[in-house]
Design goal:
Strand order of the largest sheet: 1-2-6-5-7-10-8-9
Oligomer: single chain
Number of helices: 15
Radius of gyration: 34 Å
Structural class: alpha/beta
Helix content: 40-55%
Largest sheet: 8 strands, mixed
Distance between the termini: 139 Å
């Protein structure tokens, strides 16, 4: 019944009264509680916010205007075949950077980052923050040379290899726009993709009950929307992953799951992650709260994407960032819980934008230090690079010596000497001695 009503709503248009009636039936059919339709305080103005069609069209326009720096991959799709918009941002025009199949070959000096937006359908603000970032980045590329905007954009593109999943859950967003239920969080099947990953999957920080906003699905990775994250992290090795959300102003460091809370489990590099989280939190006004997720939150979350990236994929930096909101207060409905009013959208976007810039700058500095550490440039002893050079010289000399024995005489560095055996040398001395005695006797005789 629930699946029938979902399909019915997603594929047909209704007038407002009919839609409300259908939604009442839908709520009854699947037992919705905190994802049910509510009387919203305000709604999105799609002249200010992006609806689904505007998301697709504007991303395509931005990429078309910046072909040297942006590429769009539409091969990853949702359950209903909608593109998840995998955006790749790098300096594709760098003549000093060799390419493979049209893609820039990653160099060790570049920090590789993966962003994930649009996981929860009702959270419009994170996607708007992405458009704000893209506008600032593209405007910087076309700004006056050596202006602050131009310098930052050029520096970022020379040091960062950025992959962005623009819309992880497009079916859920489509459902909201057709049903006007701004409490809807999950995919078209109601599953929370951020509880569907195989890190302490099935724990108490998720639910198996149909209609729960934390519905984890029948098994790990049951939702096809997960595939893009699994595939991209299989193809590439990332230095950082960030999952963007809204509802409160907080930055979470792994882990968030119930098992980690009981064991007080921490990532091996939690000090570095906490340091970066602090930098990001304090660059905004007001400052964000930051810390390990199960400490900051009053609840646990099992099967999350950012825990999976830290615990299974071993990505050095993994965060979940809640960009806007005051928390689940009693007077809040749904859209106002996760998204600012239309007139306040731009101001709030400008307030959180420094966080992204700070993230890029800190990760670039970290990558530079990593590279210097590997090459031992800052140590007093011989560097690893020098050792490699000396080893290469030894190998070259050895190979040259081996080739010397087989080369033509005119290629030799020194003339080849005739080698005389001891036996032949003894015989020669014996003959020489005999002839010498004979000559002496002859001289004496004639004398």
């Amino acid at each position: 019944m629930a699946d029938f009503l979902r399909t019915f709503i997603l594929n047909y248009k209704f007038d407002e009264k009919c839609m409300l009636f259908v939604m009442m039936c839908f709520s009854w059919a699947i037992g919705i509680s905190n994802t049910a339709l509510r009387n919203e305080k305000y709604l999105p103005d799609y002249n200010v916010y992006h609806n689904l069609s505007k998301i697709y069209s504007e991303i395509s326009d931005i990429v078309e205007r910046n072909p040297s720096y942006m590429q769009l991959d539409n091969t990853y799709v949702s359950r209903h075949g909608r593109s998840q918009l995998l955006l790749h941002i790098a300096n594709f025009s760098d003549s000093h950077e060799p390419t493979e199949n049209g893609q820039p070959r990653w160099t060790p000096s570049k920090v590789r980052i993966l962003f994930s937006f649009g996981e929860h359908a009702r959270e419009y603000f994170p996607i708007e923050s992405l458009f704000h970032l893209l506008r600032n980045l593209s405007q910087g590329l076309h700004s006056v040379i050596d202006s602050p905007e131009e310098l930052f954009s050029r520096k970022m593109l020379s040091k960062v290899d950025l992959f962005i999943i623009v819309l992880l859950n497009p079916d859920g967003r489509e459902y909201i726009e057709k049903s006007h239920n701004y409490c809807w969080r999950g995919t078209s099947t109601g599953v929370d993709v951020n509880r569907n990953f195989n890190w302490n999957y099935g724990g108490e920080g998720s639910s198996s009950e149909t209609g729960s906003e934390e519905l984890r699905g029948p098994q790990p990775f049951s939702e096809p929307e997960c595939f893009v994250l699994l595939d991209i992290t299989k193809k590439y090795s990332f230095d950082a992953f960030v999952s963007f959300h809204s509802g409160i102003r907080e930055i979470y460091v792994p882990f968030a799951d119930s098992m980690s809370k009981r064991l007080k489990r921490k990532p091996s590099n939690i000090e570095l992650m906490m340091k970066l989280a602090k930098e990001m939190a304090e660059v905004t006004d007001p400052h964000f709260v930051y810390g390990q997720a199960f400490v900051v939150n009053q609840y646990t979350a099992d099967g999350t994407i950012f825990d999976y990236m830290a615990g299974i994929k071993k990505i050095p930096f993994s965060f979940a960032v809640e960009l806007w909101g005051d928390g689940d207060l009693p007077e809040k409905q749904c859209f106002d819980l996760f998204n600012p009013p239309n007139k306040e959208l731009l101001r709030n976007l400008e307030a959180v934008h420094p966080m992204c810039e700070n993230l890029f700058l800190n990760l670039m500095q970290w990558k530079d230090k990593q590279l210097k550490s590997v090459l031992s440039i800052e140590t007093d002893g011989p560097s690893l690079l020098l050792c490699f050079m000396m080893l290469a010289m030894v190998v070259m000399v050895t190979l040259l010596a081996m080739c010397q024995r087989r080369s033509l005489s005119w290629l030799q560095l020194y003339p080849r000497r005739r080698i005389v055996s001891l036996k032949s040398l003894s015989t020669s001395l014996h003959v020489w001695k005999y002839k010498r005695i004979r000559n002496i006797l002859l001289l004496l005789f004639f004398y």
